[in-house]
UniProtKB/TrEMBL annotation:
Name of the molecule in the record: Thiaminase-2/PQQC domain-containing protein
Domain Thiaminase-2/PQQC positions: 81-178, 200-286
GO CC, alphabetical: cytosol
Domain of life: Eukaryota
CDD domains according to UniProt: TenA_C_AtTH2-like (cd19368)
Record-linked PANTHER family: BIFUNCTIONAL TH2 PROTEIN, SI:CH1073-67J19.1-RELATED
Database matches in InterPro entries: HAD-like_sf, HAD_sf, Haem_Oase-like_multi-hlx, Thiaminase-2/PQQC, Thiamine_Salvage_TenA
Biological process (GO), any one: thiamine metabolic process
Highest classification ranks of the organism: Eukaryota, Viridiplantae, Streptophyta, Embryophyta, Tracheophyta
Length: 613
């Protein structure tokens, strides 16, 4: 049960103001994606819709395109075996040399594309900017050669381009000749406007590379502070430098300028080119050969005989809103409909307004008492290391509170009279967090190749809602759902909850039970993904606990009992440094460390890899 007033977002026209939904919250914040601690290595989750992007960065086409791509493709690039190993300073020289050779092919194509963009630009200032950017690319090529020479490697020794490199360079050069969306291009561009449009398309295909490298450079520069002798220091410093950031800003400003006179349809084409270039960047990094043990993706870290168990919470971990709000609203509207229809029914004829007041009172009571409960279970001093036993005792108090709160809801009669079909339809319209659907869909597509099981552990009052939500996006097959169930008479709810999972302790016991029942000839590795205090025991019991969102209450309780919260990417880089020195698994339950992410794209990139893994 949760508390805080918030609008419920469904894939339906919005409810009228009179039916705004109240739900019971476990957190002290209403903002989900904001980072509430150490800086995350991946951009905070942002909407990929053009409308939301326009609100965030109105007027800048380049910024809109980056926002639309950053939360997904930037995460997919950073979590590749190549970049995780490079960040750790553990990447083998042969792999880096192969990358440098492939990047040289790309940079030559980049320089050629700049030349062609300069020919198409009709403004002297634009031409001058392109010349400056092209010179920067030539300096980058010289850097590649000098790095190899420092290591005693002949930079002139030819290494053939791999398919991912060829695919990227072909795309770039085709775009620079006007071959967009399968078109044939234009050998003779009659008007200056047509030439300017080609220049805009070309710059649109080049900009994401510059922005992504500037972004990655800054994120990887953090690890240079931890290792003064980092073998790839020079490479990282190049892309983390203010000079490179200025180049990225220059090409973004150029793209904005070239886009001003374009139509909406032409801007949409640039957006598609930008997205395609970002995907090609991810594919390029993914294709770099890394012939050494790696921690990411986890599906590669696990051996063929190893078993991977993925556990996940549902409300506010997978969803945008808590399901209790939706179920309460369905019940209230069911009473309202029955009363207006005047039908002979066993439904309680309590006025919908009175029923809503009852719900609001229950919600407000929960909010107030929840904070008191959390305060009562906290120890007076912060533990220096994980104190699991004391945490367990504290969460026993919270478990009693949660069950009492559920009993109040049942006794109120608020949940009586719901039709099962209405519940299922609401589940179909439930919005999942950005990237969540893609994660579970990829599991479904790759299940045959992966030795894994997936379990949803949820406080949700009605498992039918969960099943419907996942079924509507094609993710139900192979998904094991452990939750509470409504009691029904026929297809109408009686108002009672068949409580199977109402508390943190219930979740922890089910987690342990599932693990103990798994038979595996290899290593058993478990991952738990959650967002709240109710998930804390499972997060710690798992070999890898991943925290989605920014619950301040979770962090407050965790830290007081000695739990550390570390950005996932940072934690993986540290694990990568140790992986070849460890004889057993480097991931261990009850380590006291939980890993934070800012988007589901990070979760997918770490566990399953990107679409090219």
């Amino acid at each position: 049960m949760r508390g805080l007033l918030r609008r419920v977002y469904l894939r339906l026209p919005p409810f009228p103001p009179a039916t705004s939904l109240y739900y019971w919250s476990r957190t002290t914040t209403t903002t989900r994606p904001a980072a509430a601690g150490p800086k995350h290595p991946i951009p905070r989750r942002m909407s990929t819709s053009s409308t939301a992007a326009a609100v965030v960065a109105e007027g800048s086409a380049a910024r809109r395109f980056w926002i639309a791509a950053a939360s997904r493709e930037a995460a997919f690039a950073a979590y590749t075996p190549f970049l995780v190993s490079l960040a750790a300073g553990a990447l083998r020289l042969d792999s880096f040399r192969q990358y440098i050779a492939q990047d040289a092919y790309f940079l030559h194509a980049f320089a050629r594309a700049y030349e062609m963009a300069e020919e198409c630009a009709d403004d002297d200032d634009d031409k001058a900017t392109i010349v400056v950017l092209r010179k920067a690319i030539l300096r980058e090529l010289n850097l590649h050669a000098s790095v190899l020479q420092e290591w005693g490697v002949d930079p002139n020794k030819e290494i053939p381009p791999i398919p991912a490199t060829t695919k990227y360079t072909d795309f770039l050069l085709a775009t620079s000749t006007g071959k967009v969306d399968g078109g044939k291009g234009s050998d003779k561009m009659v008007t200056p406007f047509e030439k300017t449009k080609i220049a805009a398309y070309t710059v649109g295909a080049m900009t994401p590379c510059m922005r992504l490298y500037a972004y990655l450079g800054k994120e990887l520069a953090v690890f240079l502070k931890q290792d003064e002798n980092h073998p790839y220091k020079k490479w990282i410093e190049t892309y983390a430098s203010s000079d490179f950031e200025n180049n990225a800003l220059q090409i973004e400003e150029l793209l904005d300028k070239l886009s001003v006179s374009l139509t909406g349809e032409e801007l949409e084409i640039i957006g598609k080119l930008y997205q395609q270039a970002m995907r090609l960047e991810v594919e390029f990094f993914s294709a770099q050969p890394v012939d050494q043990p790696v921690v990411a993706p986890l599906s590669r870290y696990c051996g063929p005989k190893d078993k991977l168990l993925i556990f996940c919470d549902f409300d506010l971990t997978c969803t945008v809103v808590d399901s209790s709000a939706i179920l309460a609203e369905i019940a209230i509207l069911s009473h309202q409909k029955a009363s207006q229809g005047g039908a002979d029914s066993s439904l309680d004829r309590t006025k919908s307004a009175d029923l809503r007041n009852s719900w609001n009172m229950l919600s407000n009571q929960y909010m107030e008492e929840y904070e008191q409960c959390i305060a009562s279970l906290l120890p007076p001093e912060e533990a220096r290391s994980l104190d699991y036993d004391q945490l367990y005792k504290g969460l026993e108090v919270l478990s009693q509170f949660e069950k009492l709160a559920n009993s109040r809801v049942v006794d109120s009669g608020v949940l009586r009279g719901m039709n099962l079909d209405d519940i299922r339809k609401a589940g179909e319209r439930l919005i999942l967090q950005d990237g969540c659907k893609n994660f579970f869909q990829k599991i479904g597509k790759t299940r045959e190749n992966l030795n894994l099981d997936v379990h949803i552990l949820s406080y949700c009052w009605c498992a039918d809602l969960i099943r419907s939500a996942f079924s509507s996006v094609g993710c139900l097959d192979g998904l094991n759902i452990h939750s509470n169930e409504f009691a029904f008479e026929g297809s109408v709810s009686t108002g009672h909850i068949n409580g199977q999972m109402e508390s943190p302790l219930d979740k922890a016991e089910k987690f342990k039970s599932i693990k103990s029942d798994v038979g595996s000839t290899g290593t058993l590795l478990s991952v738990y993904i959650g967002d709240s205090v109710g998930d804390l025991l499972c997060l710690l019991e798992a070999d890898i606990g991943i925290v989605v969102g920014s619950s301040t209450t979770l962090r407050r309780v965790g830290k007081q009992f000695g739990v550390s919260f570390v950005p996932l990417f940072t934690g993986l880089v540290e694990k990568q440094r140790r992986i070849e020195k460890e004889e057993s698994s480097i991931f261990k339950a009850r380590s006291g460390i939980l890993y934070t992410v800012s988007s589901w794209s990070e979760v997918q990139a770490f566990i399953l890899g990107n679409d090219f893994s």
